[in-house]
Design brief:
- It is globular and about 35 Å long.
- It is of the alpha+beta class and 96 residues long.
- The chain has helices at residues 15-31, 62-70, 72-81, and strands at residues 4-12, 35-39, 53-59, 85-93.
- Helix 1 runs antiparallel to helix 3 (72-81).
- It has a single domain, classed as Alpha-Beta Plaits, CATH 3.30.70.100.
- Strands 2-3-1-4 form a 4-stranded antiparallel beta sheet.
């Protein structure tokens, strides 16, 4: 089964609330076998809508990444991000 990437582009509008999200999201992602490959580092925007924060996490599978997103731990974290950020999130299966 191929691994999967969770790719998020984020503009934070409320640092305090988003900090609460980040504190809870990391453990929720790790619980599903996810590990961060990039998280808010330097970037160059070449096309599309620019977001100041970009995150890439690797999961064991697309199904595990989606289960993480839909699971209660991540949904609890996400409640802090809603209204505190503008986000685009996609999960994409890796090549074998």
């Amino acid at each position: 089964m191929p691994q999967a990437y969770w790719i998020a582009h984020v503009t934070v509008t409320d640092e305090e609330a988003y900090g609460r999200y980040a504190k809870l999201a990391g453990p929720a992602i790790a619980k599903h076998g996810g590990k961060f490959l990039a998280r808010g580092g330097r970037y160059v925007s070449l096309e599309g809508t620019e977001h100041a924060r970009n995150v890439v996490a690797l999961f064991p599978s697309l199904e595990e990444a989606e289960a993480c997103y839909r699971g209660p731990d991540y949904q609890e974290a996400l409640a802090h991000a809603r209204g505190a950020s503008e986000r685009d999130l996609v999960i994409i299966e890796a090549l074998d």
